[in-house]
Specification:
CATH architecture of chain A: 3-Layer(aba) Sandwich
Bound molecules: thiamine diphosphate, magnesium ion
Strand order of the largest sheet of chain B: 2-1-3-4-6-5-11
Largest interface: B-C, 49 and 49 residues
Structural class of chain B: alpha/beta
Helix content of chain B: 25-40%
Structural class of chain A: alpha/beta
Largest sheet of chain B: 7 strands, mixed
CATH class of chain A: Alpha Beta
CATH topology of chain A: Rossmann fold
Helix content of chain A: 40-55%
Oligomer: heterotetramer
Number of strands of chain B: 13
CATH superfamily of the largest domain in chain B: Thiamin diphosphate (ThDP)-binding fold, Pyr/PP domains
CATH architecture of the largest domain in chain B: 3-Layer(aba) Sandwich
Shape of chain A: globular
Largest sheet of chain A: 7 strands, mixed
Number of domains of chain A: 1
Order of helices and strands of chain A: HHEHHEEHEHEEEHEHEHHHH
CATH class of the largest domain in chain B: Alpha Beta
CATH superfamily of chain A: Thiamin diphosphate (ThDP)-binding fold, Pyr/PP domains
Radius of gyration of chain A: 19 Å
Distance between the termini of chain A: 46 Å
Distance between the termini of chain B: 46 Å
Strand content of chain B: 15-25%
Chain lengths: 300, 341, 341, 300
C-alpha cells in the first residue's frame, strides 16, 4: 500500500473505531467512560509512523487513537472497553488505562510524564538508541510534575519526544482560562527545544515528527512537538459546551481525513472505507462475543 | 430539594448568598457545565465574580485557596475526582492543616475541599477509588461526609462556616440518592450531635425488636447499609441499629467513640463497620480499635470494605471488588451466627 | 558493621555490586556528602555512573524511577525527609503501585523508595513526622521498616530484589542504633519469616517468666519498646514479649495477623501496639482490628503512639508529643493492671 | 538615620544574629536546625524596604534574614529557635516555620508558592492594592507546584513578586546538576515577566526591587526578580562541601556589608556595629532567660 493510502487507512480505522464507541455507548455494551480522538487522528498517525520496535509510547485519557496507530489490536481494545476477559488488560484498565507491548496510558493528567521520561532515560543508561514518545493535552500542562520531568529530561538528556496535542480546550475549559504564557516557551524555559505547528494534515505532521524524532534519537536529547489540533467530539460523551457552529467550523476546515483524502483516488478511498468498516464491525462483534473475566482475578 | 446533589448545590448557593467571602474554585466549575458532577451548577451564573475555574493544577489551586483562607476569605475547592487527592497531599498535610497550629495557634484557615469518591461506574483504577483514609488522622483537619439520613447541604454550609480546614467527602453514586427515599420509609432515625457541628443518625426499622448488631457507616455506604438493614430485618430476622456518622475524623474527643455509636454498642455488643474504601487500614480499623479499647465486654467485630485491590474497570470485576448490600448482609449474618454459636 | 546506618549502607553497596541494574536517585546523594543522613555514602565514588543526584523534585524523580523500573532497571530512590512523601503520593498510589496490576498483571516494577521518618531532633512540624501510615493499605505496595533486631541491610537488599515496589521506612534516630547493642544483651530473640522475605523477631528477656503482654512494634520504636521491656521486667516485674515486624503492610495474608504476633497473643491475651506516628488511624489500629477479629478470647488492648498533633520544634513540646520509653512502660502498666483488676 | 545607615544596620543585624546562631549552636541552646542568611543580607533588606503595612511576605527555610528585615522581633526569633514559650510561634515552629503579622515561612520547598499566590489574589479580589513578596531559592525551583502557581498568578493577575535568591547551590548540589533552562525563561514561559540582576549591593537590589514592586502594585500583576547572590556559610551547620578557597573568593568579592560599607563613614559604622552587637547580645540573653513552654500546649 502507498504511504498515502496507509495513512488514510490508519486515520479511518481510528475514526470508525471512535464513532462505533460513541454510537454503541448508549446501548450499554461499554462500561465506564471514553474520550474519543475524532479530529486528532493525524497526530497519532503522523507521529507513530516513525517509531521503532524498541521505542515506547505513553499516552493519556484520550488514548484509543494513539493505541491503534501504535499497532494495537482493535478487538482487544473494544474488549477492554467492554470489560471483557480478552481486553488488552483483562478488563482491569478500561478506556483510560491501557497497555500492550511498549504502549501505556494513565488517566491522571500529567502523572505519566515523569514515568515516560524515566523510560527514555533507561534507554540512554543502557546505551541503546530507543526513544519514548509521550502525548499530553494543553489542559494537562497545568500539572506541575510535568515541569519537574522536563527539567530532568534536559539535565539527563533523556531521549523523549513530548507531544502536546493542543486542541485549546480541556474538558469544557478554553485554553485562555487555563494557560498563561506559551506552550513552546514553557518547554524552552526548561531547556527542551520545542517545535510548534498548526496543522491537521497528516503529511505535514509526519514530516515534523520525522525530523523531531530523528533529533531525539540521534542527539539523545528531549524535544517537544506542539501541534495545534481540534477536538471534534465531546470531551467524553454528550458533554460538549461549545456551540454547534463552532464545532461545525472545525469540521469544515480541519478534518484530517478530509484533508488527506484528495491524495487518494475515490475508488481507493471507497475500498479502504469498506475494508475498515468491515474490520471495525468484526472487531466489535468479536469483542462483544468474548467472555466476561473470571471474577477471582478481580477479587484477588 | 430531594437529592443529595440538590441539597449540596443548594447549600453552596445558600453559603454564597449569605457570605460574600465565599469563593468557589475548581476545574470546569463554570456554567453551563457546572462541574463534572454538577454540584456547582448555577453558581457561576449567580456569582460570576466568585466562581473561579482553574487550570488542571490540583496542588496549586488548593495552595492558592489556602492563601485566600489565610487572607480571610472562605474558599470552597472542588477536586474533580476523589482519586486526585493524591496530588494535594502535601498542601493538606504539610500546609493547610498545620498553618493554624504551627504558627502559634491563632490563625484561622476556613477552607473546604470537596470531592467525590467512589466507584461502580466503570471508570477504572484512577477514577473510582475511595481514598479519604489517606486523610484520616491528620491533626488539624476535619473530615466530613454528607448522608441522605442527615442534611447534606446543611453540613456543607456548616463546614464553610468552620474556622478550620475541612475535607468534605462526597460519593458519585450518592448524588442521586433521595433525602426522603420511600424505600426507607420503614426506617426511623434519631439525630444527635456527633462532634462540633456534625450529626450522628441512629437508624432502625420502626417497631423492630431490640437490635443485635450495630452497623457503623458513612456516606453512600450508609444508604447501602440501610438497604441491608431492611433486608436483614424482613428476610433474616436480624435486627440492627445503623449509626451514620457525618464526621469521619476526629471521631470523638481523645480516643473515644462517638456517643451514638458507644450507646448502640453497649446495647448490642456487636459491631460491623462498613465503608467503600479498601479494607486494610481503612476507617473501620480505627472505629474497631476504639470500640474494643472502650468496651468492657468482648465485642463481636467485623469490617466490610473493598478488597485490597485497585478498582478494576470491568463491570463484573468492579462488582467483585466493591462491597454491596449483599456483602453487608453476608458479613452481618456471619457475625451474628458466630456470636450465637 | 555495627549500626543500622552502616548496615543499610553496606546493603546498598552490596546490591550495587551484585547487580548492574541497581541505580540510586535522590537529592544530595553524591559524595563527599553522601546524602543528608549518609545512607548513600561512598556509592557515587564506587559507582559514579549509577548514582544520580536529582533536582528537588520528589514527585518527578519517583516518576522517573518508575520509568526506569518499567524498563527493567532497579532504582532505589531516597526521599530526603519522610515528611516529603506527601509530594509523591500520586506517583505511589495512582502510579507505581497500580501499573503492575492495572495493565493486566504481567509487568514488574522493581522500585525501592527509602526515606527517614521521625522526630526528636527539633526539626519542627515539616521535618519530624512519621507518615508511613499514609501508605499502609495501598494495594500493590509493600511497606517495610528495618530493625536492629533483624538485618537492616539484608532487608534492603531483599527489597531491591523484589519484583514489586517497596516503601522502605527508616528513622533518623535509628541510624545510630547498634545491631549488637550491649544494652540489649539480656534479651533473646527468635526470628521467623513474617511474609514474603520479611522477618519477625520475637524478643524476650532471657530466662524471664511467661509473658503477660505482647508488644507489637517496628523500626526505631521497636528498640524503645525493648528498652521498656527490660525496664518493666527488672523494675516492675511485668514480663512481655516484643514482636518486631519488618513488614508493616501487608501484615499477613488476607486479614490475618503475622504468625509471630498471633502466637504470642494466644499466650498473653494482651496487646500493646507501639509506633511513633500519630495515634488516630495509625498502624496500631489495623493491628488491633486484626487481633480482635482473629482472637477467640477477649484481649487487653492499648495503643502507644504520638499525640494527634503536629510535631513541635521545641524540645519540651516535642518530647510531650512523641512516645518514649516511659510512655510505653506507663501504657503497659495500665493495661496489665486493668486485666488483673 | 540616613538610608545608607539604615540599610547597613539592617544587614548587620542579620549578620550578627546568624553568626550568633552558628556560634552558639554547639552549646546546645538551640534545638533543631538552622539555615543562615550570611552573604545574602542585601536581598531581604533591599527588597523588604519597599513593602507596606498590608503587604504579606512568604519565606522559606532560610528565613531569619527575611524575618528581621521585615521588622520581626529578634528576641522572639531567638526564643523560637530555642523552643521557648516566648518564641514567635511559642516554640512550635522552630527555625523554618515562623509567623508574625503578615510574615510566614514553611520548610517544605516550593509548597508556599501557591499559598503566597493565593494571598496575593485575595488582595486583588478584595480590591485593595496590597501585594505579596515570596522568596525561594534556585533549588526549590525543581518543585512542580511552583509552576502551577505561576500559571495561576499570570492568569488571575495576582499581585505577587516572586523573588529567586539564586546562590547557585541547593544544600550541596550545584545549580548545573539541578537546573536546565534559565530561571527568567521559566517565569516567562508562564507569562510572568522576570528581571534578573547579579548583585550583592543593597542599593542596586533596592532599586530593582522598588521598580518591580511598583509594577506589581500598580499593574496588579505578578513579576519575578531573580538575584544572583552568594551563600557564604554552610547550608545548615558544618555541612559545606565547597572548597575553602571557593568560599573565600565569594567573601572577597561579594560581601553585601563590605560593599555597602564604603557609603558610610568609619565612625558611623563603628557606632552601628556596637549598637547592633549590643542589641543581638541582649536579645540572645533575654531569650535564653525566657521560660520553656507549658507542656499542655504541645500535647493538646
Ligand atoms: C489530575 C487530573 N485532573 C483532572 C482530570 C479530569 N480530566 C480528564 S481529561 C481533562 C481535560 C484534559 O484536557 P487536555 O489535557 O487538554 O486533553 P484533551 O482532553 O483536550 O485531549 C480533565 C480535566 C484528570 N483526569 N486528571
Ligand atoms: C520538598 C523539600 N525537599 C527537600 C528539602 C530539603 N532541603 C532543604 S533546603 C534544600 C536546598 C534548597 O536550595 P535552594 O532552594 O537553592 O535554597 P538555599 O538553601 O540555597 O537558600 C533542600 C534540598 C526540603 N526542605 N523540602
Ligand atoms: Mg485539550
Ligand atoms: Mg540555592
Amino acid at each position: 500500500m502507498s504511504d498515502a493510502a496507509a495513512r488514510y487507512r490508519a486515520m479511518l480505522r481510528i475514526r470508525r473505531f471512535e464513532e462505533t464507541i460513541l454510537d454503541k455507548f448508549p446501548t450499554g455494551v461499554f462500561h465506564g467512560t471514553t474520550h474519543t480522538y475524532i479530529g486528532q487522528e493525524a497526530n497519532a498517525v503522523g507521529i507513530l509512523d516513525h517509531i521503532r520496535e524498541g521505542d515506547s509510547v505513553f499516552s493519556n485519557h484520550r488514548c484509543h487513537g494513539h493505541f491503534l496507530a501504535y499497532g494495537g489490536d482493535m478487538r482487544g481494545l473494544f474488549a477492554e472497553l467492554m470489560g471483557k476477559a480478552t481486553g488488552i488488560c483483562g478488563g482491569r484498565g478500561g478506556s483510560q488505562h491501557i497497555h500492550w507491548r511498549r504502549f501505556y496510558s494513565n488517566g491522571v493528567l500529567g502523572s505519566a510524564i515523569p514515568v515516560a521520561t524515566g523510560m527514555g532515560l533507561a534507554g540512554r543508561l543502557r546505551g541503546d538508541d530507543d526513544i519514548v514518545v509521550v502525548f499530553m493535552g494543553d489542559g494537562a500542562m497545568g500539572e506541575g510534575v510535568i515541569y519537574e520531568a522536563l527539567n530532568m529530561a534536559a539535565l539527563w538528556r533523556a531521549p523523549v519526544l513530548y507531544v502536546v496535542e493542543n486542541n485549546r480546550i480541556a474538558q469544557t475549559t478554553p485554553i485562555a482560562l487555563a494557560m498563561a504564557g506559551t506552550i513552546p516557551g514553557r518547554f524552552e524555559g526548561f531547556g527542551v527545544p520545542a517545535l510548534a505547528i498548526a496543522s491537521s494534515d497528516v503529511d505535514e505532521i509526519s514530516l515534523a515528527a520525522s525530523k523531531a524524532i530523528a533529533e531525539v534519537r540521534d542527539g539523545g536529547t528531549p524535544q517537544a512537538l506542539v501541534i495545534d489540533t481540534n477536538r471534534f467530539a465531546p470531551h467524553s460523551k454528550g458533554d460538549d459546551t461549545r456551540s454547534q457552529e463552532a464545532i461545525e467550523a472545525l469540521w469544515a476546515t480541519s478534518c484530517p481525513i478530509e484533508i488527506h483524502a484528495s491524495r487518494l483516488d475515490p475508488n481507493q478511498r471507497e475500498e479502504l472505507a469498506a475494508e475498515v468498516a468491515e474490520e471495525v464491525s468484526q472487531a466489535f462483534a468479536a469483542a462483544l462475543a468474548d467472555p466476561e473475566p473470571d471474577v477471582e482475578v478481580g477479587a484477588a | 430539594m430531594s437529592t443529595v446533589l440538590e441539597s449540596l448545590n443548594a447549600g453552596l448557593h445558600g453559603a454564597m448568598e449569605a457570605n460574600e467571602s465565599v469563593y468557589i474554585l475548581g476545574e470546569d466549575v463554570l456554567d453551563p457545565y457546572g462541574g463534572a458532577f454538577k454540584v456547582t451548577r448555577g453558581l457561576s451564573t449567580a456569582y460570576p465574580d466568585r466562581v473561579i475555574t482553574t487550570p488542571v493544577s490540583e496542588a496549586g489551586f488548593v495552595g492558592v485557596a489556602t492563601g485566600l483562607a489565610l487572607s480571610g476569605l472562605r474558599p470552597v475547592v472542588e477536586i474533580m475526582f476523589g482519586d486526585f487527592v493524591t496530588l494535594i497531599t502535601d498542601q493538606v498535610i504539610n500546609g493547610l492543616s498545620k498553618y493554624g497550629w504551627m504558627y502559634g495557634g491563632a490563625l484561622e484557615i476556613p477552607l473546604v475541599i470537596r470531592t467525590p469518591m467512589g466507584g461502580r461506574r466503570g471508570y477504572g483504577p484512577t477514577h473510582s477509588q475511595t481514598l479519604e483514609k489517606l486523610f484520616l488522622g491528620v491533626p488539624g483537619l476535619r473530615v466530613l461526609a454528607p448522608s441522605a439520613f442527615t442534611d447534606p447541604g446543611g453540613l456543607l454550609r456548616a463546614a464553610i462556616d468552620d474556622p478550620g480546614p475541612v475535607l468534605f467527602v462526597e460519593n458519585k453514586l450518592q448524588y442521586q440518592r433521595r433525602l426522603d427515599d420511600p424505600a426507607f420509609s420503614a426506617l426511623e432515625s434519631r439525630l444527635q450531635v456527633q462532634e462540633g457541628y456534625a450529626t450522628a443518625a441512629t437508624v432502625g426499622v420502626a417497631g423492630a425488636p431490640r437490635p443485635q448488631l450495630t452497623i457503623a457507616a458513612y456516606g453512600d455506604m450508609a444508604e447501602r447499609a440501610a438497604e441491608a438493614q431492611l433486608k436483614m430485618a424482613y428476610e433474616l430476622e436480624i435486627f440492627s441499629e445503623l449509626v451514620v456518622l457525618e464526621q469521619l475524623d476526629p471521631l470523638g474527643p481523645s480516643g473515644d467513640l462517638p456517643r451514638a455509636l458507644a450507646d448502640s454498642l453497649r446495647q448490642t455488643g456487636c459491631l460491623l463497620t462498613v465503608e467503600e474504601g479498601t479494607h486494610t487500614h481503612g476507617w473501620g480499623a480505627e472505629v474497631v480499635a476504639r470500640a474494643v479499647e472502650t468496651s468492657a465486654q468482648k465485642l463481636g467485630i467485623a469490617r466490610v470494605a473493598a478488597f485490597d485491590s485497585p478498582v478494576p474497570a470491568s463491570r463484573v470485576l468492579e462488582a467483585s471488588v466493591l462491597p454491596d448490600v449483599d456483602v453487608i448482609v453476608g458479613a452481618a449474618q456471619k457475625l451474628v451466627a458466630a456470636l450465637d454459636g
